Amino acid sequence: MVRSLLFEAAGVLLYRSKQPSALKDWGMRPVRKVGSAKAKVALARKLAVLLHRLWIHQDTFRYLTAA
Length: 67
Prior knowledge:
Layout: H1 2-15, H2 22-34, H3 36-57
């Protein structure tokens, strides 16, 4: 279930979010090279790693916009 939710969150971040972000910029690069589905999987994995790191270090997420 978490896997499908991360995949959905990646799709929303890539295609529905209007705000610029480093994650969105990072996720759009593989869209052009390998396609939408593989890019969403890659972004979902990146989100999972980010969430795991925040959980382990008991840190809070600080949103930064892309340069």
